[in-house]
Design brief:
The protein has 294 residues and is an alpha+beta fold. The chain has nine helices and ten strands. A hairpin with a 2-residue loop joins strand 8 and strand 9. The N terminus is likely disordered.
């Protein structure tokens, strides 16, 4: 299978583009800290979304900028329920991930005007796509978390309107601690034993999603975290269902990208063999669902 698509996807994945934020920063624990970004200092909050998240009580302060990527910037924050990861998406028209139609095929949009606006990528259409992107990530997070999969706990929702109110940000529980945030599996240094365990967990995670009728759409060590010998799956806005006519190809792509990205850790398994094992595992029993208490 030609893997040039994967090279294009992963090329520059670790590059940090020029930040457009107006925040002044200083170093903290090897990461960028935002100066006095608290509710007590609202005049220093340059970003409307962060201000709104603080004003509405979703977070109390931003601790540090964790990573700035092509699609979003991730911040470590504090909130009423502890440490928070704030994933703040860039404006859709400025993002590099523009070929999102392949993931949205099969979705039913009842409002024809909305459908035309999104297809034409007008200003209103882009806003609707952005809100839909955020709402989709929340919805997928809630589904997977409740089903017992190893994913971050969503901290907003599951009510759709409440989720949409935080757009273009998604809030979830921080994996790791403020002093030591969980690394991506692509950045982790693993022993051979840890690599073997991580590989099995990663295949099981893909199988668990398949059992629920999902393909991740961008499944590799770049979208898996490693914390306390556990693989945590992240990045769900492009998650797609069997209603998508591209489902089989996206699943095959997930298996190929997982196999390719694991070669760094010494795991030498082909994409087709990975796909067959994932399909076999998906026929087995899934994890125990989580009980959500009121």
């Amino acid at each position: 299978m030609n893997a040039r698509w994967l090279d294009a996807e992963l090329e520059g994945a670790d590059t940090t583009p020029e930040r457009r934020s107006k925040f002044r920063t200083k170093k903290l624990l090897g990461r960028r800290r935002l100066d006095d970004l608290t509710a007590e200092n609202p005049d220093q909050i340059a970003d409307d979304t962060i201000r709104r998240l603080i004003d509405t009580g979703h977070i109390t302060e931003i601790v540090a900028e964790l990573k700035s990527g092509k699609e979003a910037t991730a911040y470590v924050a504090r909130g009423p329920r502890g440490s928070v990861l704030v994933k703040l998406y860039r404006e859709l028209e400025a993002r590099s991930f523009k070929n999102d139609a392949v993931y949205r095929e099969g979705q039913v949009i009842l409002d024809e005007r909305a459908k035309r606006a999104m297809q034409g990528r007008s200003r209103k259409g882009l806003e609707m796509l952005q809100e839909g992107w955020v709402s989709a990530e929340y919805a997928h997070l809630w589904t997977l978390w409740r089903a017992g999969l190893s994913v971050p706990e969503p901290l907003v929702g599951p009510n759709v309107k409440i989720c949409a109110s935080t757009a273009p940000a998604v809030l979830m529980r921080l994996i790791g601690s403020e002093d030591s945030v969980a690394p991506r599996l692509s950045d982790a240094r693993l022993t051979p034993e840890e690599a073997g365990s991580a590989w099995k967990q990663a295949m099981q995670g893909l199988a668990d999603m398949l059992r629920l009728g999902y393909a991740h759409g961008d499944y590799s060590t770049y979208n898996l975290l490693w914390w306390e010998n556990t693989v945590i799956i992240i990045d769900f806005p492009q998650l797609t269902t069997r209603q998508n006519p591209n489902f089989s190809e996206l699943l095959r792509r997930d298996a190929q990208s997982l196999a390719t990205s694991f070669r760094k850790h010494g795991v030498q398994v082909g994409g087709e063999a990975t796909l067959r094992e994932v399909q076999r595992l998906a026929r087995g029993k899934g994890p125990e669902p989580r009980i959500v208490l009121p």
